[in-house]
């Protein structure tokens, strides 16, 4: 059974770069026709799709964060990562990684990690 686990800092200062890693276990990140996705949920708000990478390493980003966001894969480590530059307190959220057949989705019909709380504060 495939499982995803997010890791990274819980606290980031404004203007810094947030880096999060999603480690995949129970299956290969290169197997199947899947998209590897980052989603976040700010406090009191709904889920926001941030972007995705597929098995051809094609990337797709939400226009709201495009230009500040980079998603990549490390197949040797069975991981994919999110980098978000120039963070502000508005980037405070629970960040989730997920696997889905869809590129753009916030539906919990794929495999999701448990989420990681990230706070942007000085």
Keywords:
single chain, 122 residues, mainly beta, 7-stranded mixed beta sheet, 4-stranded antiparallel beta sheet, 11 strands, 0% helix
Please tell me about this protein's structure.
With 122 residues, the protein is mainly β. It contains no helices and eleven strands. The protein has strands spanning 3-7, 11-12, 18-25, 35-41, 48-54, 59-61, 69-74, 79-84, 93-100, 111-112, 116-120. The strands form two sheets. Strands 2, 4, 5, 6, 9, 10 and 11 form a seven-stranded mixed β-sheet that branches. It has a four-stranded antiparallel β-sheet with strand order 1-3-8-7, with no helix packed on it. The chain is globular and about 40 Å long. The chain starts with a strand and ends with a strand.
Outline the biggest β-sheet.
7 strands, mixed
Q: Which radius of gyration do the C-alpha atoms yield?
A: 13 Å
Into which percent range does the helicity of residues fall? under 10%
**What's the count of strands?**
11
Query: DSSP helix count?
Result: 0
Shape: globular
What class, by secondary structure content? mainly beta
Q: Average pLDDT across residues?
A: 96
Low-confidence stretches are: none
Element-level helix/strand string? EEEEEEEEEEE
Give the N-to-C terminal Cα separation.
39 Å
Strand content: over 45%
